[in-house]
Amino acid sequence: MLVLCSGDPKMYEKFWRKMGDKTTITIPGWKSISYFSDTTNICWFLEPEFAKEVVRLHNVVGNAVTEGRYIVVGTGSSQLILAALYALSSHGAAEPIDVVSAAPYYSSYPLMTDFQKSGLYKWGGDAKSFDKDGPYIELVTSPNNPEGHPTGPVVNRSNGLLIHDLAYYWPHYTPISSPSDHDITLFTLSKSTGHAGLRIGWALVKDQEVAKRMTKFIELNTIGVSKDSQLRAAKVLKVVSDSTEEENTQEGESFFKYSYEVMEQRWKQLRAAVEANGLFTFANFPTGFCTFFNKKTQHLPAFVWMKCEKDIEDCQSLLLQHKIRSRGGKHFGVSQRYVRVSLLDTDENFNLFIDRLSSMQL
Amino acid sequence: MLVLCSGDPKMYEKFWRKMGDKTTITIPGWKSISYFSDTTNICWFLEPEFAKEVVRLHNVVGNAVTEGRYIVVGTGSSQLILAALYALSSHGAAEPIDVVSAAPYYSSYPLMTDFQKSGLYKWGGDAKSFDKDGPYIELVTSPNNPEGHPTGPVVNRSNGLLIHDLAYYWPHYTPISSPSDHDITLFTLSKSTGHAGLRIGWALVKDQEVAKRMTKFIELNTIGVSKDSQLRAAKVLKVVSDSTEEENTQEGESFFKYSYEVMEQRWKQLRAAVEANGLFTFANFPTGFCTFFNKKTQHLPAFVWMKCEKDIEDCQSLLLQHKIRSRGGKHFGVSQRYVRVSLLDTDENFNLFIDRLSSMQL
């Protein structure tokens, strides 16, 4: 069975192996004894070295404004989504605030929002059909997961609170049009450099009170975030920034250039396979000017969001019959004619996926 | 200001520095790319090496039965407490289940239970005065935090669900009487080896369904637990077990023997200081037979739980006037005549605490 239902970013292992010892980290036994990283920072468990490399990378890539922002580190961006919901909801309100997102939305949003049956916030469904008065929180994923398109908020009312999940706003997935500049912006190591197992995400937060409340959430939830993983993440981000600058001086291999080329090749193979069997369709993405690569580049989403054609009602089941485990449309708030498949597995598994896809017939 | 309100275990840094490179860990950049550690395990993000060392250490120390138990790793034991509340509560119930603990209880319990306003569980207060019918969850901390005494459940009704928080059930804090053998038992690295910054805790769980639900909670909360910290924790636990076995063969310094001696010395200094000024009282602990040390040992709690005598109503404020930040009784569900002070800071800060305490006068 090919397990392509989650977005496990195993593709990146190859690059990091090639980098050899550049990102190897050595941590002595007496390190990270204390709960605290920097008691002068609102986010008192944020490692200064990690914060420094976050700012540097965003400056190198040009995908986010960091000036005047508070950085809150999380155990992956999942924890930061919950922290942001906690921070934005009104703790004295009689009713929980509605949390919405435009379908197809990231399949975990409804589950994460509702699993604790919180009285602070509750899942309000598809943002496109949200018509209740009063305050709401809208989760905006851009580029969208699962579709891959750049998106913006859809409700657009004055009493809306926005959380921008920019996990895929990196030059190997999408053209960088300008530095993002939102109230709360979330990023994660899992999808940027591929280090999912470190469980490190970060939020760029405009408002000090919101940053304080997000920090409070993480304090009550896990009393901070692994220092080891923050230190490792700092080193990984440093090498990504370094590799970009070295590339400009023809000295090394740029992480983003390498990853872009892998994704470009994968999408080429995928298009050929899908065209060959005629069972599926997926979006065509226009190219866009990328300020990072300083040229027109393609949208190369981490997932393919496919629609089954002909009379196929359940695309997930069809793929399962061909030993491909995917995630069906119902998880994303739409019909089972749609399916999301990860394109971030190892070369071996990706090629197996292409082989199975190519040989599929009704 | 001496900050002794949290239990930051900085005392242990000295030991780990002495151990030199024994617990140094080197992690190459391509490690921990995947979300998954072991897909055959219910807790699919549990690193097998960490699980192995948890079992070994409990066998070496004799403080917990591990046979037939599921291990669930958490981002500190805080996350595991929430995971256990989630796992034990009935998701179809009309009312949230009451969560109780005998006062004085760990000050974070009410905050952690209620901060999300969960419809699954809610803080029910002091277990000693809990008189509602129906199911409940009782948090049992043994030895107790803040008091330091070994404790057991106090409600003792047939419809009670128990979570045993045994953060301090280690031979340097308390005589080990027998291997703990409960439905859900929680431990944490922060208080056992002192590595608070790693954010690693673990649960030993009897029931498979409960282990599954705890795992699900962590999946929805943080999609697993830092692999780097699990790998480091595995190495630290290994050195603790090794140091114990080497001590038996006169080759090294045992972590527990070292830590016991530091705590014994600190309690001696503390008693002398408190007797000198006559402002405070605290419990006398009887010695007990420790199966680990194979002799009678003392109770040497990580915190001192002091009561102000004479007419002092607010012990926390009194200490604050003398530049000692502590945590007052109200946080633990009792009067402000009581105060909890951490004894786990560095030698320097501990000695400063003793100096300030000794020189205190009304």
From TrEMBL, chains A, B:
Alliinase C-terminal domain location: 6-360
List GO BP terms, alphabetically: amino acid metabolic process
Q: Alphabetically list the UniProt keywords.
A: Aminotransferase, Pyridoxal phosphate, Transferase
Q: Which InterPro entries match?
A: Alliinase_C, Alliinase_N_sf, Ethylene_sulfur-biosynth, PyrdxlP-dep_Trfase, PyrdxlP-dep_Trfase_major, PyrdxlP-dep_Trfase_small
Q: CDD domains in the record, alphabetically?
A: AAT_like
Which top-level group of life is the source organism from? Eukaryota
Q: Name one GO molecular function term.
A: carbon-sulfur lyase activity
Cofactor names from the entry are: pyridoxal 5'-phosphate
Please give the family membership noted in the entry: Belongs to the alliinase family.
| Record text on subunit structure and interactions | Homodimer.
| Protein's recorded name | Putative transaminase
